[in-house]
Amino acid sequence: MITDLNEILVEWSYRTSDGKPDVKNNAKLIILESVLNDFGWSREARAELLNTLMETDIVKNKELNQDIDTLEQETFTQTEIEPSDEEFEKNNSDTAAENQINFEEEMKKFEPHKFPKKYLKVLGRMLNTRLPLTSKTKKLGHFTKEGGAGEIRSQAGELVGMIASSIQDPNEREEFLRTLENHMDNNDNKLIADKGWVKAARQNNQAIDDSLNTEFPDGYEVVASSWDVDNEAEALGMKPPIQKNKGESTDQYMKVKTPDGKTHLVEISLKKDKNIRLTNTSPEALVKLKNFTDDEKKELEKNLKDKKIEDVPEPGDGKTDIEDISFSAYADYQKKKWLKFGNDNRGDVIKLIKDGKIEKDVLRKLNIDVNNPDERVDELLNGKGSSRTRNKLLLQVAQQTENGQKVIDEVNSNTKKVLSNITQAIGSEPVKSKMLEAVREKLPLRSLVSGEESMAVGDFMMDKRTMKKVFGTDNFDDIKEDLIVDESETPPVIKYIGKGSDEPIVIAKINIREEGVGYGQSIRFDMSLSNDFAKKCKEAHKTELKQAKRAD
After folding, report:
1. What is the DSSP string of 364-411?
2. What is the 3-state secondary structure (H, E, C) of 474-487?
3. pLDDT per residue as tens digits for the range 441-468
4. Which DSSP category does 259 fall into?
5. Which of 533, 539, 551, 549 lies closest to 459 in space, CA to CA?
6. The pTM is what?
7. What is the mean pLDDT of the chain?
8. Relative to the CA of 298, which of 91, 179, 314, 499 has its CA 20 to 30 Å away?
9. Is the pLDDT reported for residue 58 higher than 50?
10. Domain ranges (residues) in the chain
11. Burial classification of residue 185, based on how many CB atoms lie within 10 Å of its CB (0-12 exposed, 13-18 middle, 19 or more buried)
12. What are phi and psi of 69, to 5 degrees?
């Protein structure tokens, strides 16, 4: 067992993406635990150290400043934003909704407003902007200069949900949501903020109501709600630095007051429905394959020997190792095969371009002049230009030539072998542990189990009570130890095999695929929340949470 602090810190730094250990970052604590495990620490010793770090740096900073009057803070009273109304109307003139709503006037019936008042303008502008999205309207900066990155329709949905959460009376909240729906109907539901997000806000807030109703059985008052913005969190009374004290998946905050006069912070992650994508990345990026140490490579090589790993690309190197699951085994082979095919069939490439047999979008992206393609084609066949689009051009040529099917089959066969290799490798150490670390980062089980934050998923809640029911324990370390990868299923899945159920619970499904079949130069590693897990959570919501009052 290695206990030298400097050695632990060096290894922890090396394994983090930015080289900076941080005891207030849950994802990095998971990496620290992996380091301690590799250094011979027992489960009990690891748990004791991590719990101490979390209790010291996270829990104590969840306490709100009880002296702050949130609704009187400038962050909550500010009404004017940039761009000004005049600038926005000018910039939005070509995307303005046919039937406009005076949102600020409509919202007067729901005063006092318990959210930052600037969002009256922001959401109002979104409600008066029609689809389709343009290069301007897809950015939050078109509506307000404040705020961060994100998909604009999701941001609109989060605003609807956050404002709805500030309206505690279920009948008033329903009136607010129906006001939005009526306006959307008047515009054929083709606005930046649409009815799908209103439905999500209705369901999310009913789930939140049930969670709060259970957490505070003697009653509570919603004091304020805010978006996940640092100065708004400070106005609620949260202690800075906010980014180190907040939950990692938090989308919005609520401040509630109990009958004893004390205010409490509620951190919520909002999910429109159960179709949650946990990852959207490449296998190499997910497990940081390029950062594998020599020892990790040797461990992987040893564990792959019992698998049916193909020696790729042909003719192979006679070894079963990390190269057989690498991106280069797929991408380099694909690129070389298509370049050789293109050079061997240059005449067909030129002819099909001139005859209009190649997609115009492909030609545009490769900057090929249909009437005079020769010079540009020669550049491309020498390796210039986008590999992905060049491959697509040559795939279309191959599909229209007699000898083309042979190279198509060879490229697809190699891709199939690489994908099979990766699928088998995810159940082998150390790839397995690194992938599970990524899952734990994306699905904040530690935060949910501990009660640091909650997640509203459609019409059910994932909080400390429902998680304990599902997993049969509120000890995150026990839960984590019982997460496994089952690559024998198609597609592979991540399962929980602990005491929460007589049968294993499928947490997530894994899909390893080529993006752009036959040409894409891209392999994706997608993980999505499974219906099995979502069903268990919804059942737990019904049994563990006390239903709050609904709208009449």
Report:
1. HHTT--TTS-HHHHHHHHTT-S-HHHHHHHHHHHHTTSTTHHHHHHHH
2. CCHHHHHHCEEEEC
3. 666 787 888 888 899 999 999 999 999 9
4. T
5. 539
6. 0.76
7. 90
8. 314
9. no
10. 5-57, 70-272, 308-423
11. exposed
12. -95, 95
